[in-house]
């Protein structure tokens, strides 16, 4: 869940159109990111899994969602360590949490239009 105060502080110097564009980009890219991560997991390509998890972590840091960010940090760490134990379950938690983030962002996006 987004910390709205932190989110607003993070984007306070952006105009509404820029914030909307950042949100739209994340929402559009979300399914593809997770398809890629799923493929990396299935192929046990831990180098790419780490790179893609790291990229997701960077993107998530903009949205002030501490739960998703902490989950993806752990996921990234396990990918870096090539730790297969529990990584699929953690991936599922990351996907669920970021899907909830998308829903929060969709609400914010609507608010920007009013």
Can you describe this structure?
This protein is mainly α and 114 residues long. It has a domain at 68-114. The chain has helices at 4-10, 16-42, 46-60, 66-80, 87-112. The protein starts with a helix and ends with a helix.
Looking at this protein, list some descriptive labels:
114 residues, mainly alpha
Multimerization state = single chain
Q: Which parts are unreliable, with pLDDT below 50 for 5 consecutive residues or more?
A: none
C-alpha Rg, in Å?
A: 15 Å
Total of helices: 5
- Going by helix content, strand content and strand pairing, the class is mainly alpha
Q: What is the typical, i.e. mean, pLDDT?
A: 96
Shape: elongated
- Summarize the helix and strand pattern as letters: HHHHH
Biggest pleated sheet: none
Number of strands: 0
Brief characterization of the structure:
This protein is 79% helix and 0% strand.
What layout of secondary structure does this protein have?
Elements (H helix, E strand, L loop, with lengths): L3 H7 L5 H27 L3 H15 L5 H15 L6 H26 L2
């Amino acid at each position: 869940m987004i910390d709205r105060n932190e989110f607003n502080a993070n984007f306070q110097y952006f105009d509404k159109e820029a914030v909307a564009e950042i949100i739209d980009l994340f929402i559009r890219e979300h399914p593809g990111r997770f398809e890629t991560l799923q493929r990396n997991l299935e192929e046990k390509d831990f180098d790419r899994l780490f790179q893609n998890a790291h990229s997701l972590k960077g993107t998530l840091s903009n949205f002030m969602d501490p739960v998703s960010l902490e989950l993806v940090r752990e996921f990234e760490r396990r990918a870096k360590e090539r730790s297969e134990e529990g990584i699929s379950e953690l991936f599922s938690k990351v996907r669920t949490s970021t899907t909830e983030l998308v829903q929060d962002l969709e609400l914010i996006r609507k608010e920007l239009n009013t």
